[in-house]
Amino acid sequence: MEKILSGKKVSKKILSELKEKVSKLSENRIHPKLSIFMIGDNSAAEYYSQNIIKKAGKIGIQTELLQLAFEIKEKELIDKIKLANRNPKIYGIILQMPLPKHIQGDKIILEISPQKDIDGMHPLNAGKLLLGKDCFIPCTPAAVLELLKFYQIETDGKKIVIIGRSNIVGKPLANLLLRKNKYANATVTICHSHTKNIEKITKSADILIAAIGKANFVTAKMIKKNSILIDVGINEIKTNDANGYKFVGDILYEDVFEKAKAITPVPGGIGSITTATLLSNVVKTAENRKNS
Q1: How many CA atoms lie within 13 A of 276 on its CB side?
Q2: pLDDT tens readout for residues 4-57
Q3: CATH number of the domain within which 160 lies
Q4: CB of 179 within 8 A of CB of 185?
Q5: CA angle 27-29-35, nearest 5°?
Q6: Which residue in 124, 225, 120, 217 sits closest to 164, CA to CA?
């Protein structure tokens, strides 16, 4: 196994496979299209959206970006989502976060058709994931699974500790790793802000997954020697160089590098795979419609 687990290699493989699938779909006159909803001005959401559009274009997936005013009314947003639900040319819908405070995120997510909910946030998809049924898997947990598969990282019977209990990463990822299949069958522990003696728990992990959203939170004293570290976090911190900032993960990379068996970098790790897994869900929608 390589010491540095590059997400770019994983993403390249996924996108290459998706390009072939999209080409075959087009032969059957099926042309997958993704609708991205973004409310207000948010540089991070804008960057992520443009990255999706760029990669989607390279593999033949059409996209539309709906940039809506920050002041948009909840009902107006719901009406636009309903239009996308009814549009047979739209195969996937994503809602960029964060939303303005006057819009209830949970309420809006319920309005997205479960068949087009490629972020896997609708309760129907979340419930199916919990039950081990076929569903749309949220793109970041899916990215972690793709990394495990690509590098053939053994999880059966291993102790995996996840730091973070969010609905979009920690909880779904824990359920995926508990499944009775390859690259799962693990003993999973979730740590969070109220966990006591967290260092004792993280040091017991064969595989440690950091998804807490705190820059450089995990240090060498928190990990077991020769453990595998997967860093889901991406945090912007100030620097004294020309840019004035840089992106780092939840793991203090330089501190843990020698002690770890393998580690994902930030950037260039899990974040590089998430767009590919999102587009994979768009293709899955198109294939489901083809076979229905």
Answers
A1: 24
A2: 999 999 999 999 999 999 999 999 999 999 999 999 987 778 888 999 999 999
A3: 3.40.50.720
A4: yes
A5: 120
A6: 217
> Which range marks the domain in which residue 104 is found?
29-115
Task: State whether 96 and 167 are in the same domain.
Answer: no
Cα separation, 47 vs 58, in Å, equals 17
Side chain identity at 100, as an amino acid letter? P
User: Which has the closest alpha carbon to 269: 249, 239, 243?
Assistant: 249
> How many whole angstroms separate alpha carbon 153 and alpha carbon 108?
37
- Pick from 63, 121, 69, 124: nearest CA to 99: 69
Q: What is the mean pLDDT of residues 107-134?
A: 96
From the CB of residue 64, how many other CB atoms can be counted at a distance below 10 Å? 14
Contact between 25 and 290 (Cβ < 8 Å): yes
Q: State the pTM of this model.
A: 0.94
Q: What is the DSSP letter of 4?
A: B
For residue 24, CA distances in Å to 33, 73, 265, 283 come to: 15, 40, 34, 11
Residue 241 confidence (pLDDT) = 80
**Residue 259 identity (one-letter amino acid):** K
Amino acid identity of residue 11, one-letter, is S
| CA of residue 273 relative to chain centroid, distance | 8
User: How many C-alpha atoms does 77 have within 13 Å on its Cβ side?
Assistant: 29
Instruction: Using the 3D structure, point to which of 83, 115, 147 is the last residue of a domain.
Output: 115
Number of domains observed in the structure of the chain: 2
Contact 263, 219 (CB under 8 A): no
Question: Residue 207: what are its φ and ψ, rounded to 5°?
Answer: -130, 125
SS (H, E, C) 198-222: HHHHHCCCCEEEECCCCCCCECHHH
As a whole number of angstroms, the distance between CA 124 and CA 119 comes to 12
